[in-house]
């Protein structure tokens, strides 16, 4: 049966690629890359650098254009329906690409495939459709959450306490629980500015592991304007941004 690797490649630093990931990269003959458009060409360049360093045998790169979300929350109130529709169209494209190629395949995933990434759901959809058959293996990677903690030299949670991992959308809808460490991903609207209270501390980072990496931390109300301003500057200059942050009540 044909084999597919789903490989976590870390938050952006080529040195974060694990030895297990290097071994999987060395076995792959076809790499499926989901492109995000020319404005995010830099993300493809990072993947290319990883392949140049670690893909040790001749291989083919198949680029799949990421389909736009034809439905939005504005037109379809149920967010889950919007995402399910997008995942289905992604699965159709991967199925078509897989069907017209041969050999061991691989998909490179930012961070780790288990955390706010749709690749595994997409792969399962392809298998469920039944047009192509294959076995697949997941290779874990360094997450942006781990990279954030390492770069700021912090522990993500207090002693004996949990850490809540959520999205900017959920923070805007639900806020932040008192006394809880909250790790926020996928926040395109600086949702930390909408969180009430004066006792929160923030550890923020953008482009973790990349040459343009930026770190800002401090009492939220004191540094939030600086983060928003810096974030807007970076997005305007590069055309895209990937950031993450931790919020925690100060004791």
Automatic annotation (TrEMBL):
Residues annotated as transmembrane: none
Keyword terms of this UniProt record: Cobalamin biosynthesis, Methyltransferase, S-adenosyl-L-methionine, Transferase
Protein name per the record: Precorrin-6A synthase (Deacetylating)
Superkingdom assignment: Bacteria
Pfam families per record: TP_methylase (PF00590)
Pathway: Cofactor biosynthesis; adenosylcobalamin biosynthesis
Gene Ontology biological process: cobalamin biosynthetic process; methylation
Source organism of this protein record: Nocardia pseudobrasiliensis
Molecular function terms, GO-annotated: precorrin-6A synthase (deacetylating) activity
Domain (Tetrapyrrole methylase): residue spans on this chain: 3-223
Cross-referenced InterPro entries: 4pyrrol_Mease (IPR000878), 4pyrrol_Methylase_sf (IPR035996), 4pyrrole_Mease_sub1 (IPR014777), 4pyrrole_Mease_sub2 (IPR014776), CobF (IPR012797)
Keyword Manganese attributed: no
